[in-house]
Amino acid sequence: MTAHSAQVVVIGGGICGLAAAHRLTRHGLQVTVLEGGDRLGGLGSFFSHGGQAVERFYHCLMPTDDELLGLMDEVGLKDAVRWRKTTMGMIVEGRRHRFNSPLDLLRFTPLRFHERVRFGVVSLLLRRLGSGRDLDTLRTEDWLRGLYGDRIWEELFAPMFGSKFGASFGDVPALYLWQRLGRERNVATRGYPKGGYRAIIDALRTSIEEAGGTIRLSTPVRRIGSTADGCSLTVGDGEVLAAEKVLSTVPLPQLRLLADDALASRLPQSDLRYQGVVAGVFFLRRKLTGHYWTPVLRCGTEFDGVVEMSALTGTDAHDGSHLVYVIRYTDRSSRLYRGEPDRIAARWTLQLRELFPELRPEDVESARVFKAPFVEPVHPLGYSTTRPPIVVDGTNLLSATTAHVYPDVTSWNSSVKLANRATSHLLDTLSRREAGEPAQ
Ligand SMILES: Cc1cc2nc3c(=O)[nH]c(=O)nc-3n(C[C@H](O)[C@H](O)[C@H](O)COP(=O)(O)OP(=O)(O)OC[C@H]3O[C@@H](n4cnc5c(N)ncnc54)[C@H](O)[C@@H]3O)c2cc1C
């Protein structure tokens, strides 16, 4: 491991920023993480409930999350993941269905019998059917309509996955769905870390600080400029910091607002759209379906998915209460997104009780609503060739965000993989400079 003395600032204390800072400090770099919020974890951060840390947004690991599992190994959390078989349900027009086995599919009445058979056969072959094809320039709608037929597209796929990308889901490259099916190929098995995602965040924080790194909370970056020999940052109430290199993990539209004019002109010109999310977090006295994930289609609810976290984590951590997330991906300018959280929580409580009439008012212990504006980039066709580069050309700034992980699915695993790519590049650049070689 080569030791460097360079001073690097990482903007953002989500998983990408923390994974990057962890790796850079292990290589001897002086690293400062600047996090605007009052806690680490970004989209995986938490709130306190009954003395326990609870994620604002549901999170789980998949057995294919090699990069994240590798990182957890490095910080002493190798055996911290509890794996469990989970199941999936589906609620269509108020009726509940199981959606796991061939038998469940044969009993799935929202589709006609021949459609159920077609759905099963095509789904089994889907990964193979996509292999070797240029799915990056093929619209998801064109691909799936062609394979499954119009009705399965309209009844199932458009509402199920469309909720994540909004009306333009059909336009998203088919490659995204193909990758997602790869990540979730063993979808029944999911994992959750002992002590929650907070355990990973705390372990990374300890690793960074023990290696001499600095983590500053409540220190939002307000302005960045790239100079001849580094970057200049204005943070908090006007403090000015200098760094040789800056790695930003801030979503691109927000980074654009922070950049001074000279830097902004160097940033990739992108009008990439993002979906935000509204999530209701419920503690219930009874279980709902027992399925981890249940899409909710055409039921008249504002949310369109229910994630029963306790199906994965059990109820012991919350004194026997069931932790349930109720979600809706939506644009940050939508009426729902702009709504007042307590009002959304009150409405969604009623809607949840209509969907599950067995849920009595006293079964709902608490309901809270959280939002995030930049969650899912809505990739245009051919994004593999237009995806922004990690290195902002001609500057000392690197940018590593959820917009950079495509065609991987946005996840902690992809963010760790991206952090590894970005830090490899940075370390390589510094090594070349120390060896007196020209930068590449
Ligand atoms: C509802 C939902 C469910 C999900 N489910 C899963 C799942 O099951 N499994 C999984 O692996 N992933 C899941 N994800 C995805 C995962 O959370 C993200 O892909 C990942 O957290 C992105 O990490 P990041 O570090 O790139 O960005 P972020 O987590 O967004 O971190 C960016 C950080 O930058 C900080 N920041 C922003 N502006 C500034 C500034 N000016 N100055 C300083 N700091 C700033 C922010 O406060 C934040 O902490 C889910 C996400 C959501 C919303």
Automatic annotation (TrEMBL):
SUPFAM superfamilies found in the cross-reference section: FAD/NAD(P)-binding domain
Domain spans labelled Amine oxidase: 15-365
Origin superkingdom: Bacteria
Xref: InterPro entries: Amino_oxidase, FAD/NAD-bd_sf, Zeta_carotene_desat/Oxidored
A molecular function (GO) term: oxidoreductase activity
Protein name per UniProt: Oxidoreductase
Organism of provenance: Amycolatopsis thailandensis
Organism taxonomic ancestry: Bacteria, Bacillati, Actinomycetota, Actinomycetes, Pseudonocardiales
